[in-house]
Amino acid sequence: MTGTEPTHQGGRGARERILRAAAELFSRDGIHATGVARLAEVAHVSTRTLYQHFPSKEAIVAAYLGRFRAEPPVPAVVQLARDDVDPRQRLLALFREPSTSPGAVYRGCAFHNAVVEGAGTMPEVAELVQQHKQAFTHRLARLAAEAGATDPETLARRLALLFDGARALSTSLNDTQPFRDAHDLAEMLIDQAVTPAAGRT
Known about the structure:
By secondary structure, the protein is mainly alpha-helical. Helix content is 64%, strand content 0%.
């Protein structure tokens, strides 16, 4: 081992440390700005150990996003699974303004950020993002049907567009104000799509 390598390497926790480092660095600094050497340094592994767990940086990005799919980081998305709240309120919960710490940078959607940063150079990641977005819209469609929407697929597509748009604009402005407008628009869309007698409790 050379003096430039991390002092703690390998071990059964190496993969987990790499993914924790990826979550920290990709979210804070971005994917392109985070090199493999920096990931290895923060994860306390050698670059050789890192490549033993992940054959490429794209594989690290894909695993990082895979964790987001398994553990939704957005509290509003978690609300979709609640069975003690009526479907209409669960859909509207998506558009609650996120809480942010003073001075913090709003980073928006990890999937959207990854595919934008990839700019066509990470096809595995692009496919994963596409699958995630489609699955999310299908989930909204099921909930829209529960809420009584006459055309749940159309409502789901529009809500997904509104949700991603609010996050993208909030990222650009570093201001979560767009969620307030998105909430009002979502309420209008849901009320227009749901028959008067349906989805009310």
